[in-house]
Amino acid sequence: MGNAQPHGPAEGTEGPATRPGEPGTSLELLVHGVGGTTPEEMLDDPRTVRITGDDIAAVFRRADDVDAERRPAGRREGPVPEAYVWCNLTSGNGTRALWLLLLPFMVVNLAHWMRPTAHGRRRTVRLYGLLVRLTGLSLTVLLVAAACEVALDLAAWQCAGTHACAARHSWLGFLSPRASDGGWWSTPGRRLALASLVPAALTGLLWFLSLRTWSAYESQQPMTHEPGPEEGDGHTALGRPGFWYGRRLVARLRAAHTAAGLLTVAAAVGSAAARHDRGPGGPVVLGVLGILLETALAVGAGVVVAVVCRRGRTERRLDGELDRRLVRCLPLAALVLLALTLLYAGWERPGWESAGRLPGDVTFGALALAQGLLVIVLAGVAHSLHRTDPDRRAAMRGLAGPVVAMLACALGGVMSGGVSQRVSDWLDGTGTSIPGPPVLLTWQASVIPPLLLLLLVLCGWLARRAWRIARGERAAVEREYPGETGDPGRTRRIASVRAVAALTDRGPRVLAVTSAATLLLGAAALVGALTTDETPSEATRDSYAVVHGAAETAQALGSWLIGLGFVLFVTWGRRAYKDASARRTIGILWDVGTFWPRAAHPFAPPCYAERAVPDLTWRIATWTRATGGRLVISGHSQGSVLAAATAWQLPRSTRRRVALLTYGSPLERLYGRWFPAHFGPDALSSLHREVDCWRNLHRRTDPIGGPMRLPGDRGPDVDRPALKDPLAYGRTETHPLPAPILGHSGYQTDPAFAEERRRLLARLRPEVPAPRHAGEPDGAQGSTGRSSA
């Protein structure tokens, strides 16, 4: 926290948090955006004091304002500024680098919250959530199956069972039948049992990360309040008492996904031994035991699916219960089955030798088919919901959730294929001693070059679109700065920044095309692998030369690209572990992706809003109750999203005494379009009605923030016309040096910021809320407290 002093009056003491204030007391609560900042920068003062909170998230004041409520009102100029600093929720110590492993889980969890708005379709809404949860479960199985492919198939089964490969890797010598001269660990079953510790440990690591992050982030109980009206009346679910407390669901899903990972490892080990026992001359007793074990594994898998299919979140009340028996017994039962499987596989079987591959093609093929079908059905459900209540601003006509779910599956497939391909190349330097990874993974790698070619085409389309927008914006710049536009280069720069900022609104189309192409190419790869059981170059050997050449090129280039991606992924993770700046870059990604609770995948990175929203709610409610004062929540970028979520959670009596000042806000431009069920027009309109007053600032050069676009006459009441950026075209008396193009930052330096804040404070009254008039004159003086993105 920089030079922040970690000591100061806290909630419940005799500090300013609880000391009654005089009439007219006002507070500005600053909430920063993505990337984080320090309290010194937000408060524009090198001496700050932590008022309440801990090292993860806290509220700060200037040292001179600690006792501001004690001072007579006449001695204060404007509101008392406070800064809520939450950046350590997403960027902290080096363990954040491990979160890169969780990227597909985070993306599929986003798909859960992207469902379209629907009134009176509860069963369809539940079906939508169920399909996303099943997709998330398939990603867990895929990740553990990839670890099994590396440890069990490539290392223990193929390389250790081949003398030429084992001779190049001395650490596998004790597993090799020839190198160890028939040692105890050299039998195939015992090699598999020993190697299974790797994917089992990965499953345990995911369980530990989920449990630990829940304790640190999401265990904060929200403030209890009366439930609001039904969502059908225009209210969002974000105002429900239990929305930001998903303890029961996360614990239940954590138990199910942990059990699924352990059962995946058990199936990978036990299936190879059972297949040998069912063969000619196999031991009868072990054959029967294998059938019983596979039956038990199938029953366990059915139980896991049933647990995942159970009804999801309980939001209408604060659910403090916990399914303790399920949470404890399900992973424990899966662990017992894994132990029995390892014992069964390690039994002595004379004459059993490892040859070829483990049945990985069937596993990865079934997962790919299941994920494709789930995404297709999810698209049908989302389309049905969107038709019920069409929203013209919703991204991709309500299909954002299926599109993002498809991309999550693609990310999982690329990560799995990249790990398998790189490990195979490392173990088999000659490329001839072992069969290598499953054929399907090679086919999936081969479709990466055409997909990248499509992305290049889309990038070219975006560049052309930006050029056309910039050409049209030049005339708009000349109109906004009449008589000043004598510098064509300056005009082009301003127009270009506006054009690039406008490309954000083209993002849904790019993602839709990419997702559709990914689905079609993935289906082609699955069909090619299952019908030929050969790699693309082998399958096209007898076809036309141009086809064979294209297949060889795609296979080689795809293998190289997927390997390069894996190397870059590992390199970025290592850098993030050691470098705080790289960790902050990852934190920005998590700022956007982990706002939502873990409703679809328990191993996703933790939801920081389940800590931040209760923090802000408690602070605002206790301060207004103790002082009777007025308060402005000043939120920039992602901070404005936290501010809106906090306002929905406040008691009604408190909510009517709070004003919102948002700037550079993605509330409508991003959240309203991508998450229409929770930030759509009805939800934002209800927020405008329920808080005392709300003003929003935006610029045309901002690629993230935008207007709220509320329907009817409510839009101008919230949105100020787009601010000028830059403030001056050329050198003026006020700006003797060239004014910068600020884009998404520096809103506080614009005179409009101080003007709008003064008006908000003037309209707030401790006793009776003032009438809403957009043109009300200034009534309170205030300083331009600073916040930062």
From TrEMBL:
Transmembrane segments: 97-115, 127-147, 192-211, 255-274, 286-308, 329-347, 367-386, 398-420, 440-463, 510-530, 550-573
Region annotation (Disordered) ranges: 1-28, 763-789
Protein's UniProt keywords contain Transmembrane: yes
Matches recorded under SUPFAM superfamilies: alpha/beta-Hydrolases
Keyword annotations from UniProtKB, A to Z: Membrane, Transmembrane, Transmembrane helix
Species the sequence originates in: Streptomyces heliomycini
Alphabetized InterPro entries for the sequence: AB_hydrolase_fold (IPR029058)
Identification of the protein by name: Integral membrane protein
The keyword Transmembrane helix belongs to this UniProt entry's keyword annotation: yes
